[in-house]
Design a protein that fits this description.
single chain, 7-stranded parallel β-sheet, alpha/beta
Length: 335
């Protein structure tokens, strides 16, 4: 297949690009290489793909409507994996417009491109952040997600609604994947694993939010990519059992589906830190602080739907995944 992959220089995007190429697809990678975090890390990821003739990179912004329209007109991709987004919960407190530009305007441009090019399947990144104020565990795609507590979560919920509208109006097959705390080599510097590893190895204190009363459904990158590829291979279709008088948020009469993609095993933040300490061979200097605005105390993914539909089954134990990240970090930063 010819696949357009947005956010190709990002953490999940880079790993997805490698996997698509490995299975024989032609990949057009798109990224704007912004400075939300160090662009050098993004370029270093792309450099890993330099010798792949099936991968071609285009530096552009999904919020640029004319560029995106021309891209679809020229490339005519068969399928699209849309991972480009302004990420992060706390950044939205100070930079709200970045989320509107990338996550709303940019996604609208991708939807329009897919419609015009008659794309076979659009798989796009949603987030566990859409569950917001929900406390019912595990988080299920069949539950309502009407109370986001971060702008990031609100924009991802908006993406789900926009995608459904395109599926209903134009028959565009769309599948949203709600990612749960993805971690692993080449990860993002704004994520806890990266920051904790960095500070532990340099002897700096780590800040532990909510005084350690956090739990996250940490999902290793290889497992996530496996789920993305399995989903991409199965274009969404309408559910003939869907009932408009009792609507299921996860499915539709239109070709639109939503799936959680997580590990289905929440881990306490303190146990997570213990795993990092073990991999680093050093003990963290801990500073306990309050819950941050936009954060939730716990995430826990119900992955039954994705497993039943695609055979998705995460298989990487936390200690193994953390050790692989720390090994990559030491090698990349030579520490």
């Amino acid at each position: 297949m010819k696949v357009l992959l947005t956010g190709a220089a990002g953490f999940i995007g880079f790993h997805t690009a490698r996997a698509l190429v490995a299975q024989g697809d032609t990949v057009i990678g798109l990224d704007n290489l912004n400075d939300y975090y160090d662009p050098a890390l993004k370029r270093a990821r792309l450099a890993q793909l330099d010798d792949e003739p099936a991968f071609r990179f285009i530096e552009a912004d999904v919020a640029d409507r004319a560029v995106i329209q021309q891209l679809f007109d020229v490339e005519r991709p068969q399928r699209v994996v849309h991972l480009a987004a302004q990420a992060g919960v706390r950044y939205g407190l100070t930079h709200p417009q970045a989320y509107i530009d990338s996550n709303i305007v940019g996604f609208a441009n991708i939807l329009e491109g897919c419609r015009a090019a008659r794309v076979e399947h659009l798989v796009y990144a949603s987030s566990s952040s859409v569950y917001g104020a929900n406390t019912k565990m595990p988080f299920s795609e069949h539950d309502l997600t009407d109370h986001p507590i971060s702008l990031y979560g609100a924009t991802k919920k908006s993406n789900e609604l926009m995608a459904h509208a395109y599926a209903h109006l134009y028959g565009l097959p769309v599948t949203g994947l709600r990612f749960f705390t993805v971690y692993g080599p080449w990860g993002r510097p704004d994520m806890a694993l990266f920051k904790f590893t960095q500070n532990i190895l340099t002897g700096e204190p780590i800040e532990i939010y909510n005084h350690g009363h956090h739990a996250r459904d940490f999902t290793y990158i290889d497992d996530v990519v496996d789920g993305v590829l399995k989903t991409l291979a199965q274009p969404a279709s309408g559910d003939p059992q869907w009932a408009s008088d009792n609507p299921d948020p996860a499915t539709s009469s239109a070709p639109s589906r939503l799936y959680n993609i997580g590990n289905n095993r929440p881990v306490s933040l303190l146990d997570f830190i213990t795993s990092i300490e073990k991999a680093c061979g050093q003990t963290a200097i801990k500073t306990f602080v309050d819950l941050q605005p936009g954060d939730v105390p716990k995430t826990f993914a119900d992955i039954d739907d994705l497993s039943n539909a695609t055979g998705f089954q995460p298989s990487t134990p936390l200690d193994v995944g953390v050790e692989k990240f720390v090994s990559w970090y030491r090698d990349y930063y030579r520490v």
